[in-house]
Amino acid sequence: MPRTKSSTPGAPTIVDVAREAGVSKGLVSLVINDRPGVADATRARVRDAADRLGWRPNLQARRLSTRTTYALGLVLRRDPRIVAADPFYPAFMAGIESVLSPEGRVLVLSVVATAEAEERAYRSFAADRRVDGVFLNDLRHGDDRVGLLAGLGLPGVLVGRLEEPGSLPAVVLDDRPGVTAAVRHLVDLGHRRVAYVGGDPALQHARHRRQAFEEAVAGHGLTPTAVVDTDFTMAGGAAATAALLGGDRPTAIVYANDPMAVAGLGVLQGSGVRVPDAMSVVGFDGTEIGRHTHPALTTIRSDPEQWGAAAARTLLELATSGHAPDVELPPAELVPRRSTGPAPDR
Amino acid sequence: MPRTKSSTPGAPTIVDVAREAGVSKGLVSLVINDRPGVADATRARVRDAADRLGWRPNLQARRLSTRTTYALGLVLRRDPRIVAADPFYPAFMAGIESVLSPEGRVLVLSVVATAEAEERAYRSFAADRRVDGVFLNDLRHGDDRVGLLAGLGLPGVLVGRLEEPGSLPAVVLDDRPGVTAAVRHLVDLGHRRVAYVGGDPALQHARHRRQAFEEAVAGHGLTPTAVVDTDFTMAGGAAATAALLGGDRPTAIVYANDPMAVAGLGVLQGSGVRVPDAMSVVGFDGTEIGRHTHPALTTIRSDPEQWGAAAARTLLELATSGHAPDVELPPAELVPRRSTGPAPDR
DNA sequence: CTGAAAGCGCTTACAG
DNA sequence: CTGAAAGCGCTTACAG
Questions:
Q1: Domains in chain B, start-ordered, CATH in brackets?
Q2: What sequence ranges are listed for the domain HTH lacI-type (chains A, B) (predicted)?
Q3: Tens-place pLDDT, residues A68-86
């Protein structure tokens, strides 16, 4: 049986409010959307009626009419068991939330394990019109998601830099100054044998960090003792550290993220290599954990929360107006703590 | 200008499919929703037409008709700067995703900082009918969210146990066996002076763990050397550990989560207290990081991902059918590693 | 400055 | 087994 048109039971609708205020429902719509062309007295009368009835516009109906979802999408591709160890995304998501929440918008999250599932997630976001736009995070070399989104007609914002100047707005945080400062810090402490443990080289930011390291070392007339690519996991950081101890041993290691540095610290201590006396260690992220290791971790700090907030603002603007400018955030910076010290045996 | 009814431009609608298949749109709806009462040949014809046109039912329209949002809500109340250090929720969320994603449903996440904002988040989920139900996580003593949800008419599932037998289905994982095993492990190693660093006592699971610890210790005819409540943060764990070293020193410390245990490890090492020679340490969570500390962390492992998956299944069932049974997950268990060893000076 | 009506794209009884 | 029509609760030109 079709429900009778706006009888009193159930949540009030715009029809109830219109009747209560003695106006048409079109007018109610104008008022709650703050459109011009409504007399102040009428406006007040409608507002009062809505308050009295405790009416909130039905989001689904609004979505259908405006063809807007009031939601933004984030796809995380990674092993679910690893996601817990990554300190970046929780903070990044908190930043997104900080701008969406006051706007009454929400974040729709999709955690997937494989590249295929990732593509499916974007397609499904688009096909179901589930979100107004998506974040393009964990940018990869020759990333095909830009083309995918273009084909799907789904607005997207780049979280980071893509080498090909793209059609999508980018929200960028430059790692370079932090890495450069870290290398200078080590050189100033007398280190000449510095190694690097990088993240997954398929990821653009892993490449950028590594490249910044290599250039910084070269800038001091040195050559890296070793450069090892891994996958950003603690297990990867531990294995790389063990390998570095086996070979031509450096006096300092720079890691591409904090979890790897923490795992490296564990391996060094387990091998009887004193930090920082025998080995200096530098992380990357500036996360909570580095404050509480022993020794506390010298690290390169970026601000994932600000990054998330800026990306959300940019995506909102893009989805609303059709374009948005690039944003450049304050660059990463060095946070010296106790895991770096003078080079041994000078 | 009102858009002309289903002209060809833009995405195809159910009307286009109906025309293409030569049936009414009502019939198309029956077919895609797998309702009985449609001839197989017709069914196939409709499916073909939909495929040919690349049609996917519009989610917003469907939501409006069915009064279902195809989304579940999770509210996280915590300092955004702390969220990154918590290993539980990313895994828990991955578990939720693992059941929602194949169903074409999504998780809507809200990260809030205060109790007021938390209540607002639930109210807004309900008022905007943004989700079909919510997870009630981080259960607190005398939690008023159960009443709040009842008032809002919003289905909810308890993630954990509430002491008052409630009207809401609960998905429970018993910490007790893990804690009991940890204490037995320590006693077997000769420890008689065991301390406990607990989490925020406002949280039910913090109380349960603490209580389990106290009962286990009493079960061996011992008394805890000290029991310190904190807030589950690394900073809290570090401070509590420092305090324990100042007083009547224990030979083993059990922590209510891994981050606190890791921070405790840092303080112990910084104070020259060798682990496990002079002090045994037990964590709680079984997270990745504990594998890579030095020494590797003995911990009590639960399975946040399974927990998330079970909670999602239960909430889906509740939202669909109006009720769902409680679920009891396999209990937490001890994972002995290197941070526990024989008690010193017996 | 306001009202009446059509439209968004589905679902669902009801009548055949 | 199928079709025509009303309804979900909004928004938006258009006419007054």
A1: 14-57 (1.10.260.40), 71-173+305-330 (3.40.50.2300), 176-302 (3.40.50.2300)
A2: 12-66
A3: 999 999 998 877 556 656 7
